[in-house]
Design a protein that fits this description.
596 residues; mainly alpha; Sodium/glucose cotransporter; 23 helices; 4% strand; 67% helix; 2 domains; globular; two-stranded antiparallel sheet; single chain
Amino acid sequence: MDAQILTYIIVGATFALYIGIAIWSRAGSTKDFYVAGGGVGPIANGMATAADWMSAASFISMAGIIAFMGYDGATFLMGWTGGYVLLALLLAPYLRKFGKFTVPDFIGDRYYSKTARIVAVFCALIVSFTYVAGQMRGVGVVFSRFLEVEINTGVYIGMVIVLFYAVLGGMKGITYTQVAQYCVLIFAFMVPAIFISIQLTGNPIPMLGMGDTVVGQPDVYLLDKLDGLSQELGFNKYTDGSKNMIDVIAITLALMVGTAGLPHVIVRFFTVKKVKDARKSAGFALLFIAILYITAPAVSVFSKINLIDTVSEKPYEEMPEWFTNWESLGLIGWVDKNNDGKIQYLGPKRNGGVAIDGKTPEFADESKGNSGERIVTNPSDNDNELYVDNDIMVMANPEIADLPNWVIALVAAGCLAAALSTAAGLLLVISSSVSHDLIKKIIKPDISDKGELIAARLSATGAVVIAGYFGINPPGFVAAVVALAFGLAAASFFPAIVLGIFYKKMNKEGAVSGMIVGVCLMLFYMLKFKFDLFGGGTEQDWWFGVSPEGFGSIAMVANFIVSLTVCQFTKETPQDVQEIVENIRIPSGAGEATGH
């Protein structure tokens, strides 16, 4: 059957399943809407947490970034997996015992301050909108390729789908939908990886196949072959790192501690009945997450080898259909700089310039080159002729490897499951921050349960509209955008949460001052080096040699320093609050989340 028809069938079936679950599990109260009634089982919550955690960045973009960065891409693997362990062991049980629905709720009550709550709401909105921008871009890319619509149209379709089950079902609908989405996304990620591993190495286990020998060449290991191909083209060895070590450490740390401050992940620990169940679900989630994360490096290796073998030094007219499909979307491009009709895929050592992997090509409208290629209007100054968007590598991988059409359709469904599951979780955080933390706790404390539920749904609707705008106008590739969200979470929430749990004398003045300094410093750095505001700057201008993706570590340290310094010169924390902190540091005996 044709790939397009199969894609419509499989994607349509998964959407029908998600919507059916949302209708079946629709929220009837604020408790259902915020924490799924607090009765989700550990295994189901583990799956839902994994789906919430493994966003479009994990499914679509991470393997693509590793494919082009090689060893340097390990920062994303180490940061995101290590971060979840940090969250599960260091923070989740204590936050669960505190018994609040949201991170701003915890910060507002722990620091006995409406100002602290408002600052936390602002930080939650900034983090969530930055994160959701990456998800909506992923949704647009998937729809545009597999349903053959424009990227913006794909974003609009995604907005409608997310709006339906997020607004109708709240956390209850999202939780059980995410269980289904996890099953879809992990199956969609593993099946092509297994197929291609068998193709290239004969080994059906992708993570072992990556280190195995090449089929028909028993003396040649796959990674050695990729290193050789990379060097022949002028790139560094795939298995060698070239990134500044300070930046590697900063990015990894920012991703780790940013994880521990992500509000849409933390709230998942309130959907179970007891602290014991929260710990169990954290363990299950780590297992479910690890399946994808230990496979991603193999996928990156497979996709890079297949890409080089398919396109390098080959005539444009011999390119397979997948190349022109992605080219028509502006996500892969080629410009024939030497007019030889062949695609030159060269690294900086060969051409003396800078490698441009991952740069999104910009095409002239309807213009064609001498060989029939679309004209790239933003070519580099070196001899590299190929432009590849990082975000297509996982999605194009089955097509590049010439896998069956049903596998291509399955990957489309998996990509959408990954992006939509996280987008829904983030939108719930945004809506609860507005309805629960602002309206219920500050603006109108006497609002009824029904009124708060209406406010939550209206907030979610507004959040979807704003998220759609960011999806149409994203500040970078999916994983890069998500990394910025982690940096913002690290700079704002992590110190406030850690000090709130483990330092009973931390007061409101210190916490508020630290959050404001941390998030403002991170926002300034992002705007300067990502959006060229405040005078802009290049890589040579980075402070301490740290990229915007890693600067959350620096801003986090500043937050800690300001918080602890201000705390020493301001009024001591009330005794009753110190007693609460003493109590939550013994994470046992907690009942259901109250939200009051």
